[in-house]
Amino acid sequence: MKIPFNKPYLTTKAEHYLLDAYRSYQHCGNHKWNLRCIDYLKKRFHFREVFLVPSGTAALEMGVFLCGLKPGDEVILPSYTFSSTATAVLLAGANPIFCEVEPNTMNIDTNCIPKLITKNTKLILPIDYAGIPCDINRIEKIAADHNLSVFVDSAQSLSSRTSTGDYVGTSSDLAAFSFHETKNFTCGEGGALVVNKEEWIDRAFILQEKGTDRKQVLDGLKSKYGWVDIGSSYLLSDILASALYSQLESIDFITNARRKITDSYLTSLKPFEDAGFIKLPRPPKECSLNHHAFFVIFDSKENKSQFLKTLKTEFNVSAYIGYQPLHSSAKGLSLGYKPDDLPITQDLASRIVRLPFYTELGLNRDHLNYTVFSIISVLNSIYQ
Ligand SMILES: Cc1ncc(COP(=O)(O)O)c(C=O)c1O
Predict the structure, then answer these.
(1) How many structural domains does the chain have?
(2) Is the domain of 231 the same as that of 261?
(3) In terms of C-beta density within 10 A (0-12 exposed, 13-18 middle, 19 or more buried), how is residue 140 classed?
(4) Cβ atoms < 10 Å from Cβ of 87
(5) Strands 49-53 and 191-195, how do they pair?
(6) Are residues 51 and 108 in the same domain?
(7) Can you tell me which atom of ligand 1 is nearest the CA of 179?
(8) I want to staple 33 with a disulfide (CB 3.0 to 4.6 A). Which of 134, 241, 270, 291 is the partner?
(9) Which residue puts its alpha carbon closest to atom 7 of ligand 1?
(10) Is 131 helix (H, G, I), strand (E, B) or coil?
């Protein structure tokens, strides 16, 4: 048996919707399937305004431009994230200020944020790692005390709920989501920028449309549109939006399937955690998760490497290392960071593993049992 690390889930309705979109002769953004997805996302998750964009990366870029960052401005973000989070900051001309993460969630350590705030700080940009919501209430309190904006990179966490019971992306000024094929709900490549800050919505329509006021023409307010601001082509093709809609309709089904994987991993790995060999994720109790991913932090990087290698070679099961911390990556070093600047992140990143996680795995009991059996066998061989 071969167990991949990730596999996109195919919905049955997608083919029908894709054909409809294709035959409509309306393939660019702002058409039927885009509008359906936007309406669905707004109604289900209570987002103020939603912009469907070509990727989570594009959502991050559009969002930082919307924040109006200037050269010299500083943005606080975790070092433990995907490159896109920091690249967006650099594209806006601002400086990324990397913060430590904490091991229960691998999200930004909110205790470290206040020490990083200077007169140049404009934005806090946390992420929701593995679909676990960051401590948004604490972050928003810090931001309010220092008059900062909050933009959450929620690429992995659509439909998770924070400790107050709110869906992620509803309370911050901005939130970015990804519909990349590695995410729970996917159209191959795609994303969404949620804008909750009322004053930024009109400009967001302009940034999305290559810096033009085309929205006013679409709304029948003008007969011609013109160039009024910066922007880019931040629109999702209606063909992809049709596939995305079939996934959004299946959110509950997909989430229930994925919950089974979390439950199996938690139950079977607990004895190894109790024995002190590994550490499992510990999301705040009040949160509810979208079951995006599952990570294990090993007691040493040697045992982590041994685990990955044996799982692959002896059982044909693919697990994955986590992110390389950005502060100690080639680009981070060129910005002046040293690996020891964030020792906690550096250490955790060297010991973390992400286990196989995809919807079909939760739907196939044999495959899930084999995966768990393989993982346990390798752990037993390491810690016998
Ligand atoms: C935290 C985070 N931010 C941003 C992205 C980028 O999303 P996309 O691949 O849709 O551009 C990802 C994708 O893996 C991510 O995990």
Answers:
(1) 2
(2) no
(3) middle
(4) 17
(5) antiparallel
(6) yes
(7) 10
(8) 241
(9) 56
(10) helix
Same domain, 257 and 183: no
For residue 178, which atom of ligand 1 is closest to its CA?
10
Residues 65 and 170: their CA atoms lie apart, in Å, by 20
Alpha helices of 10-55 — where are they, by DSSP H?
14-23, 32-45
CATH number of the domain where residue 88 is located: 3.40.640.10
Strand residue runs (E) in 109-264? 121-124, 149-153, 174-178, 191-195
Ligand 1 centroid to Cα of residue 155, in Å, is: 5
- pTM summary value: 0.97
The whole-number pLDDT of residue 305 equals 98
Domain interval for residue 287: 251-383
pLDDT tens sequence across 74-115: 999 999 999 999 999 999 999 999 999 999 999 999 999 999
Q: Pick the closest to residue 127 from 93, 192, 76 (CA basis).
A: 76
Nearest alpha-carbon partner for 38 in 258, 291, 236: 236
Chain length of the chain: 384
- Cα–Cα distance between 201 and 320 in angstroms, integer? 38
